[in-house]
Amino acid sequence: METLVHVRSEEGAVTVTPHGELDQTTSSVLRGALDRALERAFVCGQPVVVNLAAVTFLNAWAIGALVTAHRQLHLGGQRLVVTNASPRFARALRATGTSRALEVRVVAWGSCSQN
Question: Which of 6-15, 18-27, 106-115 shows the lowest mean pLDDT across its residues?
Fold first, then answer.
């Protein structure tokens, strides 16, 4: 199964939308998309939003890519927000301690509620 990752500037943020499974094999695709998003974020002064709505599987390799992007953005004065995390993914991010560093929302970017 091919993993696609779209990067767009929209709604005051650079949005990264991966589709499918994010694991050891496909994490390089996610890393490449995050690198493109970081470039845009720094140029435009916007946060990076990773929309997990279309992700069917997420493991430590993908979480590592998110943490690396978060660190780079934080050093540059920007932030990374994970949105539309399924309850299962949100639990995994909490269990690994990742949610303490990343802003994780079970809802869409721009919504008032967050997890």
Answer: 106-115
Phi, psi of 95 (to 5 degrees): -65, -35
Here the tokens at position 60 are: 């430590």
What share of the chain in percent tops pLDDT 90? 65
Q: What size, in residues, is the chain? A: 115
- CA 40 vs. chain centroid, Å, equals 15
* CB atoms near residue 110 (< 10 Å): 11
Beta strands in 1-113 (DSSP E): 4-10, 13-22, 48-51, 55-58, 80-83, 103-104
Q: If you write DSSP's letter for every residue of 82-93 in order, what string do you get?
A: EES--HHHHHHH
- The pTM score is 0.87
Distances, alpha carbon 12 to alpha carbons 2, 33, 60, 69, 88, in Å? 29, 18, 29, 18, 28
Please tell me the predicted confidence (pLDDT) of residue 2: 63
Q: Distance between CA 4 and CA 12 in Å, rounded?
A: 23
